[in-house]
Amino acid sequence: MRARESLARRSGTLPRMVSQAVAGACRCGAVRLEIELPTLFCAHCHCTICRRQHGAAFVTWVGVATERFRLRAGQECIVWHASSEHGRRSFCGRCGTALLFETSRHPGRVDVPLALLEGPIDRPPQLHVFFDDRVPWVRVDDALPKLGGVSGLEPLEG
């Protein structure tokens, strides 16, 4: 069992049957959060809003059921803003770290950037969404499914 857990930690994933909490934080540590496994998904998002919010080519999100998300510290530091007619995003008001995403299209779910988490989760990234919005200066040649279209979740041709 220890060898398997050690391998899982090195690979960044844990076996699905492991039920545990994974802590996370913003850059300055004022906002502390925790998610309880299992997660709902792990995906790379290439949409324009995510790219601009994070200042990155894409963002790797982990979706968790709302009841599996806990804010441990820093509620007073979190600043929320509407990022679309259906979604809202947050950041730390002290250090500017992009934090959470919630949408009325998926009630009961909180999306957390994988990079905020301090330990492995129960799955590696599974797919790319809004792939047709990707930046041209990053080459993505993995074998993960690549979805796009208006919803960001439609299969792309070729």
Query: For this structure, what is the CATH class?
Result: Alpha Beta
**Main sheet: which strands, in order across?**
9-4-3-10
Sequence stretches where pLDDT stays below 50 over 5 or more residues: 1-11
Largest sheet: 4 strands, mixed
Radius of gyration: 16 Å
* Number of H/I helices: 2
What is the CATH-assigned architecture? Alpha-Beta Complex
Number of domains: 1
Question: Ends: how far apart?
Answer: 42 Å
Note the overall shape: globular
Query: Structural class of the helix and strand makeup?
Result: mainly beta
Q: Helix share of residues? A: 10-25%
Strand content: 35-45%
Order of helices and strands: HEEEHEEEEEEEEE
Overall pLDDT:
91
Number of strands: 12
Q: Can you identify the CATH superfamily?
A: glutathione-dependent formaldehyde- activating enzyme (gfa)
CATH topology call: glutathione-dependent formaldehyde- activating enzyme (gfa)
Structure explained in plain terms:
The protein is mainly β. The chain has a single domain, classed as glutathione-dependent formaldehyde- activating enzyme (gfa). It is built from two helices and twelve strands. The chain has a four-stranded mixed beta sheet. A three-stranded antiparallel beta sheet has the order 1-2-5, with no helix packed on it. It is globular, with a radius of gyration of 16 Å. The protein starts with a helix and ends with a strand.
Question: What order do the helices and strands come in, and which of them pair?
Answer:
Elements lengths: L1 H10 L9 E5 L6 E5 L4 E5 L2 H7 L4 E7 L3 E5 L4 E5 L4 E6 L5 E6 L5 E5 L13 E3 L17 E2 L5 E2 L3
Parallel strand pairs: 3-10
Antiparallel strand pairs: 1-2, 2-5, 3-4, 4-9, 6-7, 7-8, 11-12
